[in-house]
Design brief:
4 copies of one chain form a homotetramer.
Chain A lengths: L4 H8 L22 H12 L2 H5 L3 E6 L2 E7 L13 H18 L5 E12 L7 E11 L3 E11 L5 E15 L4
């Protein structure tokens, strides 16, 4: 018995890690993103009304990587005045999804299959930057990790949340 | 743009759930909640601005259990017009957190430590009901499960998301 | 060396589960499994050397459901004499995977994509029963939940671990 | 209302991240581990019979970091001859737990609360190296990430699994 060649092919796309440790990168984070892909990801972001509602902004895109920002707003809090886990999750799920979209073929769209989020510190800061990174890009499934940094008024940063996510490439048939 | 028919077909295979809730129950789901705890949980819900922003409503509370509702809104969507995973997560994280709060001592408040969410079908329906249940109540950590059901215009229900969460009881010192 | 009494006390608060299994059922848990599928799943279990090494036994199969058992062994422990999280995970991942396999077409095999495990009480008992249930069966991806019950010498049961898992149907080309 | 000081204190222990991206480090990975802690972690590893059964070896320890190795064995496989997810999880859960133990006070022991594992490629290689890293060290809860690399006969490495885990510091009262 052998496995589905799709699955095995996808495994072969996995590049050798640059080093051991938590800094496993999909590929050069300094790589320049194809302008067609860049426009495509920006159009997807613009088409998500939830992101407009939360005023989430795109900070940067690179192959296998996306950075987004959420500013503190009084109407996005939980009972202690921290930014709600749901808003933080929206931010980092989006960063991971767009990171995945940068490495997908143009005829594929992204859907989140599942994610795990650890809320490691209270989200007390003035703004939040989420970084999504592709760690493994398969033909059907792509695994990402995300970090959310709270940025205080003095510019200092602290990790407030971590995500591990599985994304799926789905076919976009037509409009 | 439409989705991969495979994805949509697969969603249709999802059978209607036999009942809401989780089969491993913390305690009698018919148990009556102490009115003091009931008022306390409702006050916590009212103090979360994120829930007001999303117009999330409380449907019911019982010992170790909370049900919340989110109505579809055009400003809470992702790129295909489904309700965004971040809004669904806000809903079910809240249901799990309030379920935990119903079994905490009155001098403890709840914080989410971490959760895992599976988005099992597109959130295409008119409204969404999340049920959070306490499966294990420890002194410091409490484990919950949540389900989100999409409710169509004809009243039929379909599971769209599942959560497994760890909640922490923290001391509320004073105001 | 003994554990923090807080941790142990908390475990004792865990009520006996009312029944095995998950409240959101894929289909009738009393449904009879097709004998061809039954033989196929049993053959897969027999072909997994890790399960033989841990002496994991099949207790039962039904459509969308599998039950497995692991007996305490002195060589499967962590530092406090509890059964190791890795052995518990092996047990419940297998229960979820075989539950998925009962609902897959015969030309598809199962691979675990990802899972989240909560270790809700110390695995101190004499044996452990894992129940895996399919909650959502898609064409490519299937979502399962699992519970592990520790069974004491007097037959009483306590939940010790919970799993939420995503499984993938892969093509088996030939032998 | 204010939060439990313990929780807030713990948040303050979180060091500034060295850089954005997936390489969030707890502290200098080149830091030298206190010999007392080193002996203590090695003693804990030696006391886990599950690790002896799987012949898991310690490769290295540093503050907030542990590396372990598992060699392929024919009796640790699943149905395709890949190393079983349960064995891979045992390896990386251990790496994360021992990473946590390197940063705990000597009167605290470690228990796994929960983890999420993504199996990103088939575990086909000759041996497997797991690296566990502490990303956030609180007074009660510690968040770790782990990676498992499959190492082929020619020495090339490929990521096969990723973990995100929550660990708990528990009091060890006496022997």
């Amino acid at each position: 018995m052998t496995l589905d060649p799709e699955y095995v092919d996808a495994a072969d796309q996995n590049p050798p890690p640059e080093r051991l440790g938590s800094g496993v990168e999909f590929e050069s984070p300094n790589g320049k993103l194809d302008p067609v892909i860049d426009r495509r990801v920006r159009a997807t972001i613009a088409s998500q009304s939830m992101l407009s509602t939360l005023e989430i902004k795109l900070l940067g895109l690179a192959p296998g990587r996306a950075e987004l920002e959420l500013a503190r707003r009084a109407d996005l809090c939980q009972q202690h005045g921290f930014i709600h886990a749901g808003a933080i999750t929206t931010l980092v799920d989006s960063a991971c999804g767009f990171a995945a979209l940068t490495v997908f073929p143009l005829d594929r769209d992204v859907l989140t299959v599942d994610f795990s989020v650890s809320l490691v510190a209270p989200a007390t800061q003035e703004k939040f930057i989420a970084v999504g990174s592709v760690l493994r890009n398969g033909r059907t499934l792509t695994t990402c990790r995300g970090e959310v940094f709270g940025v205080a008024a003095d510019g200092s940063r602290k990790v407030v949340a971590l995500m591990q996510a599985t994304m799926m490439a789905v076919t976009t048939l037509s409009d």
